[in-house]
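lol so apparently i was supposed to do this last week
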Amino acid sequence: MRIVLGVSGGIAAYKAVEVCRRFVGAGHEVTAVLTDAARRFVGEATFSALATNPVPEGLWQRWDGGIAHTRLGQRADLVVVAPATADFLARYAAGMADDLLSATLLVTRAPVVVCPAMHTEMWEHPAVVENLLALRRRGVHVVPPESGTLAGGDEGAGRMAEPATIVATALALSARRCDLTGTHVVVSAGGTREPIDPVRVITNRSSGKQGHAIAEAAAARGARVTLVTSSALSAPAGVEVVHVESAADMHAAIAAAAPGADVVVMAAAVADFRPKAPAAQKVHGLPELVLEPTPDILAGLAEARRPGQVLVGFAAETQDVVARARRKLERKGVDLVVVNDVSAPGAGFDHDTNEVTILGADGSVAVVPLTSKRQVADAILDEVVARLERDARDTRDARDSKRDTKED
Ligand code: CTP
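anyway here it is w/ cytidine-5'-triphosphate bound
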């Protein structure tokens, strides 16, 4: 694989040497592209000695029979920028092309991985947060920084991920298909908590693991992902997270995120009912519980859906599993229902593994035997991608036949 390793000007540039060495050691052809600021931290000679190719000098140089600023990006199979400074991210997000690295990034159609490294104050600044969000929306993958010692002896979040993590993430990513690039996927996860009073809640046994695995898999396949979750699990890398508690919170968050989304996967175990009037103060003694149904978020999405949007629901059952799920599929008006028999060993709530059947409104049935929740996630996304591709094909055919009719 041809890899362009971009190095921008932060102290973590010294760790990029190790990233370069590991890529070359794994048998890849590596060209390091240094910004002017990077050259202040690490010498060009180091990268020229370690990489497969010498470090190109800049925009105006001839390269591989062409001009460097287009040829490098066109020929790359993967571009990794480590470290990616706040300044570099801003210039990349703005579409600048005034040095070899930024021009290469504008030209390339290969997967791009950025590895931010900066001081905590910068990492948390809204400008940096928004730039990263814009890049993620365009399909750029982010290996988030870790917490630790920063330049000048400060401590905090912003230290570049370790070279081994960067190389493993980048190689795993390029090995996977990027079939959701350019799409927006909204995923809900976890069991909601419905307040009885300020202390107590009604909830269920959902851990959020399956929903988080779907969010992670969708991001790895190139989607921009919004994860609406009530789970305390840590968020997958590169995913926009909205934390919620109750069915009402989840309803509001999904209503905000779903209208523009290409795919909505409702993996959350949304409570079907909640206390009608939660007490404002802690209840002493036995509470009188009057329950009311919660709004059915998924059914609402199906009513309001735009053409081409793919909706996926979940069903947790313990008996007549497939027959009940098929009825649910029809009742809710969704494209796919993922049904798990939560009474099966190793499947359902809180396990790291799952075993599901994916039913399609078009009559399709895909059985996924017991495997990791991450692999179940990819199997669900395979079904989603098949529907997105079918919709895109149908739209293209309809447009072509309209044009043909006009020309006649
Ligand atoms: N769901 C929802 N809003 C609710 C309840 C559920 O969007 N208020 C979604 C879940 O996220 C899941 C699917 O609907 O995708 C589950 O359907 P549901 O009818 O709640 O399943 P069960 O709780 O198993 O219901 P039933 O008692 O009808 O079997």
